[in-house]
C-alpha cells in the first residue's frame, strides 16, 4: 500500500489472488523477481489477463516456453518488457541494417557493465541465483542480447566464459559471450558488475559501421564506406517504459503488433541458457 499512496494508484491488493479475480482488470505488468515470472504469468493467463512481463523472461527458456504456451492456450497476449526496442535510434539502427546501409553485417561488439554493489540495496535479490537466475548476464546482459537478436536475427551458436573477478558472489560478476547468428554475423558481448564503461554497441559491415557510444544517449553514428561519419540525434521518450506500454495496449486492442512478443523475448533466454552451459562445459552450444 506504500506505493499506492506514493503514486496515487486508485486500486491496490494485499494478495495477488485478488488481482487475478478482479473482473475490471484486463492486463497486468509482471515486475516481480525473475523466479516468480513463470508462476505469475501463467496464473494471469489462466484468469484471462493479458501479460506484459519484465525481463529476463524467466529463470530459463524452458519456463519461458511454458509461459508462451499458457498465454496461447488461454487466448491472451504475452509481451516481454525489453523496452529498448522502442528507442528511436535502435529502431533506426535495425532499419539501416535491413536496408543495407553498412552492407552485410559481419560483426557486432557490445558492452553493458558498471561498478555495481547490490549487496546492501533493495536489489540484493539479484545476487541470489535461485531468485535472479544469474548475475550480470541475466540482469543487463539480457538487454543487449535482446537488442542483438532484434537487429541481427535468431542466434545459432554460443560460446561463453563467466567468472568472479572482483566480487565473491553466488552469481558471476563478469560474463563474456560470443554469438553467431543465422545470417553468419558474429557478436561479442561483455556484461559485468565489476567494470566501468557503460553500455556501448557497434555493428560492423562490409560497407560501414553503426556506433552507439552509449545506448542510452540520443546519438547514433553511421560510418559509410568512404569512412565519413554521419551523426544523428534520436532522443528516447522521457519515460523509457511509456512507448512500450502504450504499444502493448494497442496490441491488445488489435491496433498494432507488439515489438517483443513472448516468441521473440525468449531468444535472449535461450542464448543465456546456452552461455551458462557453455561456460560450465567449455564448449560451443546451440541455443535452438
UniProtKB/TrEMBL annotation:
Official protein name in the record: Oxidoreductase
Pfam families documented for this protein: GFO_IDH_MocA, GFO_IDH_MocA_C3
GO terms of molecular function: nucleotide binding
Gene3D superfamilies: Dihydrodipicolinate Reductase, domain 2 (3.30.360.10), NAD(P)-binding Rossmann-like Domain (3.40.50.720)
Domain Gfo/Idh/MocA-like oxidoreductase N-terminal: 4-81
Species of origin: Paenibacillus rigui
Domain GFO/IDH/MocA-like oxidoreductase: 91-210
